[in-house]
Design a protein that fits this description.
Chain lengths: ~475, ~325, ~725
Amino acid sequence: MPIVLWTDALVFLLLIMVSLFVWHVRRHEHLRRPWRIVLCSPIAMASAVILLIYLIIGLLDSLHFHPQIEDLNNGEKQYSTQIKSVFDMLVSHLQEHDEKTYSAPFAAWQYNKETIELEDGTMIRDYPRLRFGGAHLRDPDTEKIPDIVSKVLHSTVIWSVIFFLFVMLVIWRISRRIQRSFPESISAVARGKTEIPWLVIFLTAGISLWLVIVAWNLSHYYHIFGTDKVGQDVFYQAMKSIRTGLIIGTLTTLVMLPFAILMGISAGYFRGWIDDAIQYIYTTLNSIPGVLLIAAAILMLQVYMANHADQFTSLAARSDMRLLFLCIILGVTSWTGLCRMLRGETMKLREVDYIQAAQAFGVGNFTIIMRHILPNVMHIVLISVVLDFSGLVLAEAVLSYINIGVDPSMNSWGNMINSARMEMARDPVVWWSLAAAFVFMFVLVLAANLFSDTVRDAFDPRLRGREE
Amino acid sequence: MMAYILRRILYAIPILIGVNVLTFVLFFVVNSPDDMARMQLGQKRVTEEAIQNWKAERGYDKPLLWNAEAEGLDKVTDTIFFKKSIRLFLFDFGRSDSGRDISSDIQQRMWPSLAIAIPGLIVGLLVNISFALLIAFFRGTYLDISGVVLCVILMSISSLFYIIAGQYLVGKLMNLVPISGYDTGFEAIKFLILPVLVGLVSGIGSGTRWYRTIFLEEIGKDYVRTARSKGLSERLIMFRHVLKNAMIPILTGVVVILPLLFMGSLITESFFGIPGLGSYTLDAINSQDFAIVRSMVFLGSVLYIIGLLLTDISYTLVDPRVRLS
Amino acid sequence: MLGRLSLLFLFLFAGGCAEPPWNNPYPAEQDTASIIYDHFAERPKHLDPVRSYSSNEYLFIGQIYEPPLQYHFLKRPYELIPLTAAEMPTVTFLDAAGNVLPEDTSAEKVAWSIYRITLQPGIKFQPHPAFARNEQGDFLYHNLTEEDLEDIRTLDDFEQTGTRELVADDYVYQIKRMAHPTTHSPIASLMAEYIVGMRELSAELRKQSTPADKHYIDLRNFSMQGVRVIDRYTYEIKLRGKYPQFIYWLSMSFFAPMPWEADRFYSQPGMEEKNITLDWYPVGTGPFMLTENNPNLRMVLERNPNFHGERYPSEGEPEDEEKGFLVDAGKSLPFVEKAIYSLEKESIPAWNKFLQGYYDTSGITSDSFDQAVQLGAQGDVQLTEEMQRKGMKLLTAVTTSTYYMGFNMLDDVIGGYSDRAKYLRQAISIAVDYEEYISIFANGRGLPAQGPIPPGIFGSKEGKAGINPVVYEWDEARNKPRRKSIEVARELMIKAGYPGGRDEKTGKQLILYFDTTGGGPGSKALLDWLSKQFRKLGIQLVIRSTDYNRFQEKMLKGTAQIFQWGWNADYPDPENFLFLLYGPNGKVEHKGENAANYNNPEFNALFEKMKNMDNGLQRQAVIDKMIAIAREDAPWLWGWHPVAFSLHHKWYSNAKPNLMANNTLKYKRVDPVMRSAKRKAWNQPVLWPLKWVVLLFLLFMIPAVLIWWRKERATAL
């Protein structure tokens, strides 16, 4: 039985909007031009491939449903009250493979000693074998590394065959489109002589998907990033955190955009008291330290949820609400910058001849804004959206540290780092939670930063001119 | 000039009132005065009577925003909101909910905050500018590209990682500086090295990149081309002309944040156990001490407005063509 | 850049290489002084003995204020001995007409009991400006004007100090302060039940001062019927009925002396604005006095020059001799000059500094446990090799506290006294595996509770006789209790009408709610674990986590369903635990401490009887009956009793854990010379990574220089 959480709905709304935008851009040559620069940049395309992989995982994790459970007595269908996502189904083995407590990456034994009762009743203190990690091995000391190598090789072989066929298919399609022979296209791609850097795209996609496949395969037999304090797979947590990170990065902007655009443009266009009022609002909001505003808002939400407990029956619904609210309040604290830029730009545009002329002809304000002003400030909006993304992902971690971030029961990199701080003080050190959060977050933020740089350079004519 | 400043100050008053109303509403939606009393009185054996006493003592027994029972003007003035916020405008912060005098706490705690913030700012500026200048000097070469990539990589790491790694490596493994803590006087230096260093490293990526764009913008201007055509060496152009002219946007950018240095850094201070205003605010949030939070929000807003004002003034000082109006 | 920084390091530390290590957080001159270094996590809220009621406050005021009695440092079970009193108080029982009754009279007949306390003469207060007088004998600082206060920032800014002998009046003054409504004493309402005349005095004082206007009231002018000064060193407290637990309260700081001069001194106008209050600057007779009071940084206790003197006890438990706790027997206390407590909010830096030798003692957090302690095969505890090499010592003690999970008995589903709810609670009691909880979250540092009373307190039973038959069965082979299997719990679920966790009638899965306060880093793991426990029975556990205030409100309104709660003993008497289940103590109806709102008339009646009995077989029988009732009803998951593990360095001695006494600093001793040597040995700076950093930096400079050189040449050409 499918269920749509609030953030799911908004994510798909966002997806629809982006698709419409893409469709719109494809039909207009002048809009397509800057995007072509982005498409032709190898760094941007490599980043885009990685972002796409994150996005797919995030989207799969946003399709929620109540799993069906076996009937009890009367044969009618029963649905669990738990909420799972399609992604959870794909990696259901990770969820079920719970250990008791810490275990290192690829370990076959638990990280702490424990009192074990032997069959003859004597008690010894030793590292117990894990329930799932490396459980298929008889003697992990000698068998483990060969086993891992063979599993990696196995999946590599299968993967390279599939991927090779896939690449060939894509190249064949390209060759049809640009009307060149198939072998010619292959050699062009291989030498990197194509306009769109296909070689880079294939390489990044190949390597990153290879990593995904190998990790997925190995995760059936090992905890590739170890397990945490209560024995949950860290790899699973890090993957689940992707959705949280993406949602914070994207929904926040979605929430703030209407405000920023509406207020920024009307302040710049109408001037006078409207400008004064809007300036007052954003100066006031801006001058409150953001952390305090977020803290207050999160506390307020908790009160609301405590008073309306019946509306939030499941853990997922509660943490989802908190996530959404965090996005909203982050949006409230971050829209002012964009608003100010739009105001300035609109004020400049207002004085431009053709708008003055339109006003003189008595064209309505609304029409002028929609026709002339909005399209001309869209590049500012786009740049700021793309640039904000990585900052928001990083902000989530910091907010979780002060306990005003996402729900503590939600998987997020911030929560992972937060609990990992304690683990760093252990000796021997438990480093894998921190490392997993670091790697996943770093890759996403780096890709987003590189991508947004290219987008900015492509869209900001001022900067483009300077590159010479 | 004076008239302008005066007008800006007057303009600040409605903003501060707005800030006050907003924080007030947000916090009192969350916390009833009863909650605050219970929080402050502790958890073992708290009686209803003690709660009422506590509220009365701190003036929380009045209505929040509107006193229906009072007469005339008192309807507005005899409320928690009016009584608590009017004193803020006189910078009389009163007592915290746990009973300490806030002004004297702020006076005491702002020094440690400044002790990290000012060296952090200066060292950060020096290092970032020199890096950016180097990268701008080598623009177009592979050093430029690798420098920018390095900056992006450094930017993509959460500041929490820098702090955790810094404490772990420098403090725990290398035994170079105390892991955390603070002391007064010159003893403080050894406690400040690590936080300043961590702050520097975590800011280096974005800082260098930002200054690089400023330098590149300057380099693209006509006077640089003229200078170059006069046969001046690249080194001379960079240091004499570009650096000097780029200082204007750099300094005005710094001026905005100067007043906010008082507020300290929430995360750094609490990680390193430095008793500054940042950890003060964080503690207040965690213990829901509304009086402190309200005071800090007010102080933050005032400082922010001063920062804006200083920026405007500094623009006129460095560029006489800009007129304040 | 990094090269420049490493130079900076070298420059900064060049002078100090030979002397204390670079990472020494303390000034060099303290290196070999007789100082104890410790830390505190949170700013103490109150240092006024009449208000203070938490262990982080007792850490300080326990060393400063001296109530008439104290716990013997070494003896177990805990035993009260005189502190400032000359001997143990005498108790007289009276009937309603005022006739003296023999000591063994049953509780119902006792109408009043009178405690008479005689003090030792010659005890003096610490030096304090409140006592300072000029030549004429007038107080110097009792009528300060605004100008006088202008240059005053802290208490040290008053130049003159004085002292005075401790008299019975000071104790009586403090009891009157307890009655004062503006002091917010947490035990005022409890004591008003017993101490005669307290309620009346409280009402009278309320008339004298409105809460908003707190002018000084000289409590000497008021009398309290039940508290009487007999002579300079003797006073009496008259209680309603019999209250044997009262004697324990006499060892707590609520009953410490308060000189009226101090109250007067601190109440002057203008003092509060400077944070100079009684709540902040204590005045006592104890072995230490607070000389630096900066809770944002550190608190410093220094030896009180006027201390009346005390000797280290010369008898204790049989094994104390062997453990070295009697080496100092008969020597004069205190042993150290100073104790410096630094603020340490995070446990990680605190632990690391302890390992570096900068704190003398440390608790063990769950994360540092494996580094410090290893459990032997038989569950015996010993230090790891690393710790042994450092010469550390480990001490363990079962705490007199209990952490339980409560069911709100007012709840429709989980509460109530029907069989259905009872079986459900019992099933959950079996399913939630506290043995696993203790092993995961407390590293095995705890005992699963069999009832409300922790071991070591009268009324708890050990071994087979003490197990909770609802949850445990006795494992003869291993000679320890064994949790009943989950099958038993599932059968109970069927009996309760929830086969497989589904309601028989509706077929819906049972959803229960766990209420908790907002989560720190560790909470996610804990909550996941809890949900897992309930899932064993097919129950879905929903976590409702809110902030502390909301949680308190829920508890008060009775809208919580399942919650975790703990209780720390005030005094070693079973009454202090069983009252947590006493009906008329219910949280919702009576604002008491019975958070589960358990109310069983039979239990209540037995409690009233047990309360006034003296320890003995009869009392044990009553307690057994009460516990049996409570186990059957299962209003709590009995949870666990933590075992406190503490580590201390080799140079620190007399560290025997005493969970009741708060004034143990005076017994502690350090060897500062050994400490200084160890610190140096453990904190040698590691410099080679810096060299690598510099080298790497230089390597990166090579291409830069090359390009530079090429560019310069290009422009020159």
